[in-house]
Write a structure and sequence with these properties.
This protein is α+β, with helices and mostly antiparallel strands and 69 residues long. The protein has one helix at 50-61, and strands at 11-12, 23-27, 33-37, 45-48. It has a domain at 22-61. A 4-stranded antiparallel β-sheet has the order 1-2-3-4.
């Protein structure tokens, strides 16, 4: 999927420590969501469809990506 990111408004989570080691998110046209590394703002971005983003954020909230203890 090709998405124009030139007008994207990127933001960091309010839970971010304020440093450079963060991911940034942009809500784009048609519900598409962009995710990028804040240390490399001109680098590549991941693009999620609305359904993919909902599945990803639900999985994170459910702890599915937590490291095993």
């Amino acid at each position: 999927m090709t998405v124009d990111l030139s007008r994207a408004k990127w933001f960091k989570s309010s839970h971010s420590s304020g440093g450079q080691d963060c991911v940034e998110v942009a809500f784009l046209e048609r519900g598409v969501v962009g995710v990028r590394d804040s240390k490399n703002p001109t680098g590549p971005a991941l693009i999620f469809t609305p359904g993919q983003w909902d599945t990803f954020t639900s999985s994170v909230s459910a702890g599915e990506f937590n490291r095993p203890s």
